[in-house]
Amino acid sequence: MRKAIFIFIAIILVAVSVDWIDACSEVRTDKDMFKRNLTYAEMYEYKDSTYDFVIRYPSFFSEQPNDVGHARFCYSDQWATVVLEGYTMSNQGKSVKEASDSLAQCLHATMQKQGEDYFILSGPQYEKGSLIEGYSYYSKFIRNGKFWFVYTMVYPDRYHDVLTRLFKEIDEWQIWERPLPKLKQGENQTPRDSF
């Protein structure tokens, strides 16, 4: 009887060891690791001390040096960079439609969505007039008085399908309120309004 129990325990230990070794030997891509980190990350809040706007960012993003009315948070490894930024810009008396159309042209937007006091633009990422191959942006602009408050993300195109949580953060962002996204932890779906 003792030998049977010993053999049974030994078989269980061998099975668990083999399963553990197999799980550890799986090759995970940088995209898989980013997805896992984003799925389980706590969301931190940044409040701008001058304009009082609030943006949320994943805990594994690093805070970059911030200027007045401008905050930047970045995730970067040797394969990809994802950047979240919050900032303000002058309204110059434009309506939502006028500002959306004007900025869509300047930013080479391929998708536009307008609300009562906001608009969302997305498209390929350009920097100083040059296309940044394989990168796109997704930005929400909210009008408040003489300013546009902007929450934007620049990301690798191949990460698009794992960024649902951040797309929802931007879609549901309000300047001062802190709504929680309606995405369940671990849920993976592309946003309805994505291009």
Question: How would you summarize what this structure contains?
Answer:
Helices cover 28% and strands 35% of the residues.
Describe this structure in words.
The protein is an alpha+beta fold and 195 residues long. 28% of the residues lie in helices and 35% in strands. The protein is built from four helices and nine strands, in the order H-H-E-E-E-E-E-H-E-E-E-E-H. Strand 1 and strand 2 form a beta hairpin. The chain starts with a helix and ends in a 24-residue tail after the last helix.
Salient structural properties:
alpha+beta; 195 residues; elongated; two-stranded antiparallel ribbon
Layout of helices and strands:
Layout: H1 2-25, H2 30-40, E1 43-47, E2 54-58, E3 62-63, E4 70-76, E5 81-90, H3 96-106, E6 111-114, E7 118-127, E8 130-144, E9 147-156, H4 164-171
Antiparallel strand pairs: 1-2, 3-4, 4-5, 5-9, 6-7, 7-8, 8-9
Mean pLDDT: 85
**What's the number of extended β-strand segments?**
9
Q: Summarize the amount of helix as a percent range.
A: 25-40%
Q: What summary fits the major beta sheet?
A: 7 strands, antiparallel
**Which class best fits the helix and strand makeup?**
alpha+beta
The stretches of 5 or more residues where confidence is low (pLDDT under 50) are 189-195
Strand content range: 25-35%
